[in-house]
Amino acid sequence: MTESSKKLLSFIAKIGLVLILTISILKISGELIERYTPWQKYMDPRERLLWNGHYNGTKYVLFGDSEFSSMYVDSPDKTIWERFKFYSDQDIFPGALVGSKREDFISAAKIIAASWPAGTTIFINIVPGRFFPTRLPQPVGGNYDYKFRRLILTCNFSDDPAKYIKNIAHCFIGKLSFLFKYDNVCKNLIAGLSTPPVYFKINERFNRIWNCDGDFALNSYKKLEENALPDKRIKSFPLIDQLQSKFSGKGYRIVFVLTPLNRDLILSYGSEKSALTIFNCFDQIHQDIKSYLASRGILSIDLYNACDSECFADMNHTNEHGDEIVAKALAEWIMSNPL
Amino acid sequence: MTFTSFTFYLFLPVVYLIFYWTADRWRWLVLLVASYGFYASFKAPYLLIVLFMVTIISYVCGSRIGSHQDETGRKRWLQIGVVACVAILAFLKYLPFFETHTNTLFGLNITLSRTIISIGVSYFTFQAISYLADIYLEIEDPEKHFGHYALYMAFFPKLLQGPIERAGYLLPQLKQPYQFDYDAMRSGLLLFTWGLFKKVVVADRFALYADQVFNNVHSYTGLTLIIGTYAYAFQIFFDFSAYTDMARGVGRMFGINLTENFNSPYLATSIADFWRRWHISFSRWILDYIFKPLQLGWRDWGQTGTALALLVTFFVSGIWHGASWGFVIWGLLHGIYLAASTYYRPYQKKLHKMFGLEHSSWLKWWQVLVTFNLVSLAWIFFRAKSLGDAWYIVNNIAHTGFDYKLARSNGIAGFLNENLFLNISMYDFTVLVVVLPVIWLLNKRIFSVFSKPALARWLSYALLLAVIAVFMCQDKPAFVYFQF
Amino acid sequence: MTTLETLNQIFCMVFDDETIQIHPEMTANDVDGWDSLSHVNLITTIEAKFGMRFSQKELLKQRNVGNLIDDIERKLADN
User: Fold this and answer.
1) How far apart are CA C79 and CA C76, in angstroms?
2) ipTM of the shown complex
3) pTM metric for this prediction
C-alpha cells in the first residue's frame, strides 16, 4: 500500500471516529435532556400520543380525531379527558389527534397497540362527517406522517418502496437521539424558558358558539354543501374494519362513539333545497354505521343527538359545554358497563 | 443537487474516491464528468448545452485571438466572443422579462420561460469573458488543452455561485499533478462543515425574520422594517459567505484553491471599501473589465468621467443580478454612492485631517455604521418583492406609528412579539444570540483547531456536527445567490 | 532628468507625498492612496507632462511602475 493510500485510509478512519463521537454527543445530550429537564411541560397536550404514547397505567384511552381533542376549550381543565376524570374518578389517556386522516388512525393504533395491555377500553370517535360523500379529492398520506415516521413504520414496502426506505431512515434517526425523536422538543424547551408556549385559546381555537361570531362555522359548512354528493352514500366503512384488525388479538374493549351533530347549523346555514337533503344524508349514514357496528357485535355509544345548539363551535365539533356532556356520557357508560 | 442536498453527500465521496484512484493524467476528465453530472442533477438539459456552448465559443475565440498578430483581427475575435457570451446570458436571464412584455404587446400567452432556470450561467459566462479579455490584453496565453479549459469553466465547486476565477489563477492549478495532502483534506472538510453550519443554523434563521417582513411589508412599519432589513443584510452575507466556504472547502480537497470572496464586508469604512470586501471575485471582475476601461477611456472628463464609469459599472452589476427594477436600482444606488464619493472624498479627507480625526477609532466605527446603513438601504431594493414594496419600506422606516389600539389589546408581550420578534419563536432568537458571538470570535481562526491536542480536535469537530444536526433551521430557503 | 526621475516627481505631486521613491516593481498596493481615482489622475498628469497619449490597451496591460516606464520610453523613442 502506498504512503498516500495509508494516509487516505487513516483520514477516512478518523472521519468515522468523529462521526461516532458526534452520535455519542447527540445520544448522551438527548438522554440528559429527556431525564433531567421538564420538556413535557412545554409539549402540546393534544399531541400526547406522539411524544408520550407509552402505556401510563390508565385503563381508558380516547382515540380518534379533533372531536376528541377538545379544540374549542379555553383551558386544560375543560378538556374531555379532565372532565372525564372529574365525573368518573378515572384517568383516561388523550390519544386523539386533531385532523387525523385514515392513515393517522392506523399509525396511532399501532402506537397504542404497542404498549397498552389487555383489558384497556378504547373509545374511538366517529364524527358525523367522516363518511359523508363529497367530491373533494382525498389527499394521500396522513397529516402526521412526518411525526409518526420517526417512531414507527407507517407504510408497507409494497405500497411505496421509496417512502418505506425513508421511513426506515427516519426511525433510525429517531433512535439516534431523543432530540430527533419528537418534533420540536428542543425548540419548545428553549423557547419555553422565556415564553411558555400557549396551547389553549389561540387563533381560532377557543370556547365559541357557532352562530355567535362571523363566518367561522359558516365557511366550513358552505364548503361541505358545495361539494356534497348525497346520492353517493357508501355502505361499507373500511376504516372501522382496519381499526378492528389493528386492535384484534390484544384483548382491548373497543367502543365506537358516534359524536354529536349540530342540526340547527345545517337548518340555519343550509340553502332551502340542500339543507334537508344533507340532513337526511347524515341521518342515513348514522343509521348505516349503527347497524354496521351492531351486525359485527362492536360496542358503540350513540351521542348523535346528545347536544343542542349551544354545545357546538361548528357543525361537528363541541365546545366546552358540549365536551362536558360527552365526558359525562363516557363516564356514565363505564360505570354502567364495568369490565 | 446543492451543497445542502442529501445526494451531494453521496456524490462527493464517490467522486473523490474515483478521482483518487484514477491515474494523474486522467484526473481532469473525472472532475469534468463529475462537474457536468453535478450540473445535470438540476434536470435541465439546456443548461448543459449552454455551458458547453459557452465553453466551445470562448475556447475557439480565445485561440483565434492568440493566433492573430494584428490588432484588428484580435479585436474582432474578442468582440465576437464577448458578444456571443453576453447574448447567451441575456437570452436566458431576460427571456421571462421579454416574454411578459411580448405577451402583453401581442396578446399572447407564452409560458416557456416559466420553467427556465439559469443557475450558474451568469458566473461562467463572466468567467469566459475574463478569459478572452486576458488573452486580448496579452496577460494570458490561450489554453491549448480543451479538456483543461472545459474543466476551468465547469469545475463543480464553483459552478453554481462562483467564485469567478481568473484563468491565470485556476488553470495552472488544474494542470498540477495531484498529491494527497492530509492537511488540505482536513482543512477542506472543516471549511466545508463550517460553511454548512453558517448556512443552515444562521443564514436560514435570519431568513425567517427577513422573509416575514419582506413578504408582508404592508403589515409592518418603523422599527420592524429596520429589523427586517438588517436581518436580510445578515442573511445574504451568511448565506453567500457560507456557500463560498463550502465551495472553497470542497475545492481544497481536490487540491484546488479558489479565491476568497468575503473579508468582513460589514466592517467596511466606505462603500469603496465595502466592494473590496464583498463578493470579491465579482467586484474585481467588474473593476478590471468594465470600470477600468471606461474610466481610462473617459479620463479626459476628469472626475465626471470616473463618476460616469462608476454608474455604468454598477448598473451592469445590477442587471447581472437579474431582470428587475429592484436590482437595477440597487446597482445604481451603489453607483451613486461611489460617484458622489469621488467628488467629496478629497474634502472629507481634508476635514478629517483638520480635526485630527484621521486615526481616531471613533471615526472608524462611525464610518462602519454609516456604510452598513447605506448598504442596508440598498439591500431593501434588492430584496423587496416589488418597487412598490421597496418604496413603502423606505417611506415608512422612520415612522414610529404602531397600531396602538392593537398594542393595548395584546399587551406589552404581545406587542413586542408581533413587532420585534415577528411572531418567530424565541428559540430561533436565542440560537442566533448564542451562535453569533461564537462565529464572530472563530470565523477567521477556525484552522487554529489543528494546533490543539487530538481529543480536543475531534471533540470540536463532533460538537460542530452535533450543533448542525440539532440546530439547523427547519424551514429551508435555497441559497440566495443561486438566482443570479 | 531620466524618465524615472520625472515620473517620481509626478508621483510625489499626485499623491502629495515628497518621500515617495518609485522603482520598477512597485504597484498600486505599495503606495498609500493609489486607488483607481488617483490612478487616472496619475495617467492624465503623465500624459500632459510627457506630451503623449496612451492607448486603452496599453493602460489596461500596465501592472507595475516598470510597465509604465517601458511604455513611456517606447513612446518617447517613437516620436
Assistant:
1) 5
2) 0.87
3) 0.90
